[in-house]
Amino acid sequence: MDYPKPLLLRYPYYLDPHVLNSLKGGLAVLISESNQLVIQGSVFTSDNPLPVGEEGTIWPSRFHAELYLKKDLQEFQVWQKEQKRLKEQQQTQLRVQKAQARQEASDEFYRRHPIPFAFSIEIKEALSGLSASSWGDGQKRNTVYHIYTQEEVRLGRLYRPKGEFLCSPVKSRSGANWSDSLGKDSHRLDADGIKQVPTCKRCLDILKRFSKTSV
Predict the structure, then answer these.
(1) At residue 26, what are phi and psi to the nearest 5 degrees?
(2) Is residue 181 part of a domain?
């Protein structure tokens, strides 16, 4: 549905500046004659019949005054609200579908790949994660999620002390604990309450070695 088209009215030969100013914010009018509209003594004429008895709003434009009928504007506003409602409904349905897909993927990952030690899913925090493009919590769209040990880990020749990222025992590569939150939660949940899966390739490669099912 397109925005309503206005009825065009010719300006009087001389337009009182006070009348023009009154039109600039849109002036509500009642159409009482079929071929003209009189506003504060100024006569605006129309080449087409005007709907007598209808209410409207008149606005100034460069070459004509534009008269929008109240009923047309109301009909358009009702249509706009309905379109907004439908769009929000579609967005909600899409978000629910995506959340369900993420939930199924998370459940499937942890079912196929049980991690044989106490862990949490963490990010390697960086000050750049607190930039204008971040989500305000140290994360960004391309944030990588790592497996963080909550107990000492010995898997074959692999050793990680408690409180270390599985992918890197080197402190300089582990990121600083700016938020003082590493290892305090057993599971990282997203906005929909879904358990985050690790996305770090190195963590997954190490986990793959000790998993019966490939990652």
Answers:
(1) 85, 120
(2) yes
